[in-house]
Amino acid sequence: MKNLFKIFFCTYLIVASLYELKANTVSNSLYIIGDSLQTVNGGKIPYFTFNLNNSFSQKNAIIELNVGDSLNLWVHNTDTITHIFDIKGIVSTNNSILAGDSINVLHQFNTAGLYLFYDATNFPVYSYLGLAGSIVVKDHNHASFFWNTKEHQSVWNTTLTTGGSVVWNNYQPDFFTINGLSHPDIITDPQINIVGNVGDTILVYISNTGRGMRSIHFHGYHAEIKFSSKYPNHVGRSKDTFPIHSMETVVLQIIPDKPGEYPVHEHNLIAVTGNNFYPNGMFSITNIQP
Ligand SMILES: [Cu+2]
């Protein structure tokens, strides 16, 4: 009888552990949509996004997964030309999607971090024009904030979408967005503006899907690098300014040591402007309560 119980108990343990190891499959759809981006001065420039449903939003999709999840992703091309879907460093099989067609991508994410999906068509043209979003892979349940940072040289968007070409070395962007937003939407967006309490563990996921270099400066608090797509050896460093190369990502952890309200901004001063006006660019506010 005792042995029988042991067998039952062991079987239970094995089944339970197998169940725990079974990762979730998360299904998502992305729609490639061409429309226009509203800039801070009320203008509109040609723009494309990956959206989670078939209606255009200036905010590119952010897909959230837990470590071990498999992403079952359908990518639908609602545009009139072929696009190519890649997940940087993960899926680069040049998945061409004909106009009006769809593809399916299945991938298991076993490492926490921040990954970029983008359009490789005539790179960097369509990625620059907006087709670059992010996949967040978490190994925690802490408060998390998400920034997809990007610049725009507004006249180039028209040039590139009407078949013209540009000289990328002459890049002089005039608009700077986070998650496709400009001032004042940036400072009211709950995905962007860090809120919390002293002692909280807070994660900030930052990607640079523009063509320029980022230098993100946190006032008031230091942050620790938890993930860096370009410099894995930087993990563990604690500082207040974070360079991020084009098409790279970092994950930062902040544990606030004091209450306060502080800016977080891009330290290249042109990038805190929009149409030459401050603070119309990459500028947000951290609000920490006691
Ligand atoms: Cu600063």
Mind explaining what this structure looks like?
The chain has three helices and 20 strands. By secondary structure, it is mainly beta. The chain has a single domain (25-289), classed as Immunoglobulin-like. The strands form four sheets. It has a six-stranded mixed beta sheet with strand order 11-10-13-18-15-16. Strand 1 (25-38) and strand 2 form a beta hairpin. The longest helix has 20 residues, at 2-21. It is globular and about 50 Å long. The structure holds copper (II) ion. The site of copper (II) ion (CU) has 4 residues, from loops.
Protein traits:
290 residues, 6-stranded mixed beta sheet, mainly beta, Immunoglobulin-like, globular, binds copper (II) ion, 5-stranded mixed beta sheet
Topology:
Elements: H1 2-21, E1 25-38, E2 44-51, E3 62-66, E4 70-77, E5 83-87, E6 91-97, E7 102-108, E8 113-119, H2 125-128, E9 132-138, E10 143-152, H3 154-161, E11 175-178, E12 195-197, E13 202-208, E14 214-218, E15 223-228, E16 238-239, E17 241-244, E18 248-254, E19 260-266, E20 283-289
Parallel strand pairs: 1-4, 3-9, 10-13, 12-20
Antiparallel strand pairs: 1-2, 4-7, 5-6, 5-8, 8-9, 10-11, 13-18, 14-17, 14-19, 15-16, 15-18, 19-20
The structure holds copper (II) ion.
Copper (II) ion is lined by residues 217, 219, 265, 267.
